[in-house]
Write a structure and sequence with these properties.
- By secondary structure, the protein is α+β, with helices and mostly antiparallel strands.
- The protein is about 30% helix and about 25% strand.
- The strands form 8 sheets. It has a 5-stranded mixed barrel with strand order 4-5-6-9-8. Strands 13-14-15-18-17 form a 5-stranded mixed beta barrel.
- Strand 25 and strand 26 form a beta hairpin.
- The termini are far apart.
- The C terminus is likely disordered.
Length: about 700
């Protein structure tokens, strides 16, 4: 073996036929003794010199017996760097860990497992993932997998001591992730310490507590690998934990935590059945385990041995950006979505909380309030929803009733204070509110509206550009800002598309981008029902053709003013003569200036009223050619309408065209039944209200 004779010669030259000192340090299972042998009265240390000259290597299992292991390892490392003796052709492993001297102060945000934590750097504010150097904890179960023994206890040991606390992170070494690993960033392995407090101002090595309690095992490094700075102390503590049979070293059957997972839409019915039990037995003590947005969480209830999805009742935060599996670029979120999530992670994540459950939403998630106990028993509890509202990171749900919901007045007052202070999402709110108010006054109030017809639909629907000043300039701004979307932001995942919200949608008709409002989303087909709000056109588009609106396009009021002819029935797209009616109406009014008299609004926001062109009633013109008929109902309005339009309908009948080609087949009871049917569809199965 290379350098074997060199090692023998050196040992004989310093020890053979001489008085020696022998220090016994241990024995193996076969009774072989291990220790140190040096010349009596000499300062020369034989084992260190053998390592320094490259005539020997350290042996991991027997190094546990000696008290000067750190000196021996340092000596061996110097021989490797000098490439002497057996290390003459040594080539470092390119994937091996690299020593680091990085030290920084941070605040612990999340305990990922018994050997991995997430910290927020005090200087930069960035979140960093840090592993405990030279330690390995049992794995926590993910999904349907169960925890390994002591995995939960190890995580709880860290959570109770570190979450929300400031620590010192002393990086011992760093390692590149394996090519097959989903992690792409360089992993940092560090010694984590925190101030013990008191006058001594000493630091506590958290890793030592993990090892001493039997929560982790010690990694057996190769001789050329970096390791924790207190590795030798870890070795001694692990011996003591093993002898005491603590934690993972126990020879007993260790019970494993069992968790009933109530998250996911497949548990919707089950959660509804359990609602009364949760509501009546509350409040519940739990742990806020995970936050997907500022207002949607996963909470673990130890007393119920379950984890559930919970959304804050009455409070909604913007959607944050997120990186989907397999994608390098983050999907953009809504304004202040990231800030809201960051605030929750820093202030509430993995804290002990008190949960009151009140209902279940349509996705199967529970709705309720989440409160954090005060720092002292006398201090009031902190309502997370109220904290989000006060910082401007959340808004009240549009259906929130402050008079009906407990504490609703405080919530409403807090939101108004955040608005007045222009905090968070309410920045520039007053300007947007003024623009929205102008739109409401121009389009929703009953009265006279004048404008140019930009689209004609079926069933007597006409769309105007009316009630908005500088329409042409607004269209120019919209076209310019939306044109950049073809090469700009990436598409949104279907999970982030919310009914009722505004987006940019690509029209299948001309391939251009327009502003739209989503009515509904079908996750199975990947399609969304939308209305292009500047032209009043309803359509179905692929979810891949929806993107976030540019900021320039968000502040402009919607331009379309849709109106449907009142008191008359015009055939729709699927009816006989529906296409003829649509083409005639388009030829009559498209591109022309008309005057609309609004009577009321339908449930989908469309105005109902009369439309006049150069003093002529458009409904009368449709009646005269036989492409419309008077609505037949038993009420005062219909009788008045028949007096107004009856003569025009008679003219249409006499033509024997279109609707009247077979005479008068319409019974007086038919429109009452049809009106009831339409009302039911609008209420239960039609287009949702805005």
């Amino acid at each position: 073996m290379p350098f074997a004779l060199n090692a023998k010669f050196y040992t004989e030259s310093v020890l053979l036929q001489r008085d020696v000192e022998v220090v016994f340090e241990g024995a193996d299972k076969s009774g072989n003794l291990y220790g140190q042998v040096n010349e009596a009265g000499s300062a020369v240390r034989v084992s260190e010199n053998l390592l320094r000259m490259g005539y020997a290597k350290t042996v991991a299992w027997s190094m546990q017996m000696t008290s000067n292991a750190s000196v021996l390892r340092a000596t061996e490392k110097s021989a490797m760097k000098a490439r002497v003796g057996i290390w003459h052709d040594y080539v470092p492993n390119p994937n091996a860990a690299v020593a680091s001297t990085d030290v920084y102060q941070a605040r612990v945000v999340e305990i990922f497992s018994g050997d991995v934590i997430i910290v927020a750097d005090d200087e930069t504010g960035d979140f960093r993932r840090v592993c405990f150097a030279s330690l390995r904890a049992p794995k926590l179960g993910r999904g349907s997998d169960r925890d390994m023994p002591v995995a939960w206890e190890a995580r709880e040991y860290l959570r109770q001591r570190l979450i929300g606390r400031r620590v010192k992170v002393s990086v011992d070494y760093q390692r590149k992730p394996q090519p097959e690993s989903p992690m792409k960033d360089i992993m940092s392995y560090a010694t984590i310490t925190k101030d013990r407090g008191g006058k001594e101002n000493t630091e506590e090595d958290i890793g030592m507590g993990l090892v001493a309690g039997g929560f982790v095992s010690l990694i057996r490094h190769r001789s050329d690998e970096e390791r924790a700075r207190n590795y030798e102390q870890y070795v001694q503590l692990e011996k003591e934990a093993t002898n005491a049979k603590k934690g993972i070293h126990s020879d007993k059957n260790i019970p494993v935590r069992r968790v009933n997972d109530l998250t996911g839409s497949e548990n919707k019915k089950r959660n509804k059945d359990m609602l009364s039990s949760f509501a009546d037995s509350g409040p519940h003590k739990g742990i806020l385990e995970y936050a997907s947005t500022g207002s949607r969480y996963r909470i673990y209830l130890p007393s119920q041995s379950c984890i559930l999805a919970l959304a804050l009742k009455g409070v909604r935060c913007p959607v944050p950006s997120r990186t989907l599996h397999g994608e390098s670029a983050a999907q953009p979120g809504q304004p202040f979505g990231d800030e809201a999530l960051h605030f929750v992670k820093l202030s509430f994540l993995q804290r002990d909380v008190q949960v009151d459950i009140s209902s279940v939403d349509k996705t199967g998630a529970f709705l309720g309030t989440v409160r954090l106990p005060g720092q002292t028993p006398q201090a009031p509890m902190i309502d997370i929803g109220l904290s989000l509202l006060s910082h401007g990171y959340a808004s009240l749900n549009e259906f929130f009733d402050p008079d009906r919901d407990e504490g609703g007045q405080i919530y409403s007052k807090t939101q108004e204070e955040a608005k007045a202070a222009d905090k968070g999402i309410w920045k520039d709110y007053k300007v947007q509110e003024a623009a929205a108010q102008k739109e409401v006054e121009a389009q929703q109030a009953a009265g006279q509206v004048c404008g140019r017809v930009v689209d004609v639909g079926y069933g007597g629907k006409i769309v105007l550009h009316a009630g908005v000043p500088n329409v042409e300039e607004s269209i120019r701004i919209l076209e310019t800002s939306l044109a950049t979307l073809d090469v700009g932001d990436s598409n949104l995942p279907i999970s982030m598309i919310k009914p009722g919200d505004g987006y940019a949608g690509k029209s299948a008709y001309d391939g251009s981008w327009y502003r739209c409002r989503v009515y509904s989303v079908d996750a199975n087909s990947g399609k969304a029902k939308v209305r292009f709000v500047d032209y009043g056109i309803d359509d179905v588009v692929s979810a891949r053709d929806l993107k976030r609106l540019p900021s320039e396009a968000s502040g402009i009021p919607k331009l379309a003013f849709p109106i449907r002819l009142q008191h008359v029935v015009v055939p729709g797209d699927g009816d006989d003569y529906g296409i003829d009616a649509g083409e005639y109406l388009r030829e009559l009014v498209y591109g022309k200036e008309v005057t609309a008299e609004v009577a009321y609004r339908d449930s989908d926001g469309t105005a109902i009223g009369t439309v006049s062109l150069d003093g002529k009633d458009v409904a009368s013109e449709m009646l005269k050619v036989g492409l419309a008929r008077v609505l037949r109902k038993y009420n005062r309005d219909s009788k008045a309408a028949f007096k107004k339009y009856g003569a025009d309908e008679e003219i249409g009948k006499k033509t024997h065209n279109y609707l009247w080609v077979h005479g008068d087949p319409y019974g007086s009871d038919e429109d009452d039944a049809e009106a009831d049917k339409e009302a039911r569809e609008r209420r239960y199965g039609g287009v949702p209200r805005k």
